[in-house]
Write a structure and sequence with these properties.
By secondary structure, the chain is α+β, with helices and mostly antiparallel strands. It is built from nine helices and eleven strands. The strands form two sheets. Strands 1, 2, 3, 4, 5, 7, 8, 9 and 10 form a nine-stranded mixed beta sheet that branches. Helix 4 packs across helix 7. The relative contact order is 0.16.
Length: about 260
């Protein structure tokens, strides 16, 4: 509230998202390496395409309201289908040119509701996004971005990062007008009390509990994006594939050097 009173929604948005990127960067080696390279050219993160926040069902509407206060306007809303188990609301801050892609677990029966405005009831299961929240916390102002997606020459970045020992996963979109791939996931430590809560609630089993406490869990990525032909949107089917591939309960997804 104080920040908004001092500078208004546009500058507040600029400040908040600068800090969100900076915090994400401290926990993502690919982000650190690429930011250092871009800083040598004076670019900073000027090539950002969108910022992905993961939210619990309980707090998704709260996230929407917080972003609205920073001047964001709703764009398209995705429901990826009954089998995918997730949805997203895309928002854009028109003056700052910042896009937020906000993910949430959804039930099959929730295809027709505006989940960006109607609070979602508790669910008896956790999808990929809900489990990530359970392990790490809410993205916004807590755990940080799940990923920052920036616009690059797709193949050139893959090659350059590989020379620095940073692998890139197989592309989940590979079209002439849209290429997308995550860097290999950054593992974050998981606090024991978070894992115990998930175990006691029946969302993970004993083996998963011990694995998460000992080894951590997938936390964040840098996303390598190349757009052509003025295409501004997203490929829902491809996003479903990568969400499932990066579920913390799965083995590390196949990477491609």
């Amino acid at each position: 509230d104080r920040l908004l009173e001092l500078v208004g929604p546009d500058l507040a948005c600029h400040a908040v998202f600068s800090e969100e990127r900076a915090y994400w960067q401290t926990r993502n080696r690919a982000g650190q390496e690429q930011k250092a390279r871009q800083d040598q050219l004076g670019l900073g993160w000027a090539n950002h395409d969108h910022h992905t926040f993961r939210s619990s069902r309980q707090h998704f509407v709260d996230l929407m309201l917080a972003l609205e206060r920073l001047g964001f306007e709703r764009r398209e809303r995705y429901y990826a289908g009954a089998q995918a188990g997730w949805g997203a609301q895309i928002l854009e801050q028109p003056l700052e040119g910042i896009v937020a892609f906000c993910d949430v677990d959804l039930e099959p029966a929730e295809t027709e509701i505006d989940f960006s405005r109607r609070p979602l009831p508790p669910s008896s299961k956790l999808g990929t996004i809900g489990l990530w929240i359970g392990l790490h916390g809410e993205s916004f102002l807590e755990a940080g971005l799940h990923h920052l997606e920036c616009r690059f020459d797709h193949q050139l970045l893959r090659d350059q990062l590989a020379r620095r020992g940073i692998n890139t996963m197989n592309p989940f979109s590979d079209f002439p007008f849209l290429k997308q791939a995550f860097t290999e996931g950054e593992r974050w430590p998981v606090r024991r009390e978070r894992a115990e809560r998930l175990l006691n609630q029946g969302f993970i089993d004993e083996a998963q509990f011990h694995q998460f406490v000992a080894e951590g869990a997938l936390g964040s990525h840098l996303e390598n994006l190349q757009r052509k032909g003025g295409f501004k949107g997203f490929n829902q089917k491809s996003v479903s594939v990568i969400i499932q591939a990066t579920d913390p309960r799965r083995p590390m997804a196949e990477v491609q050097t």
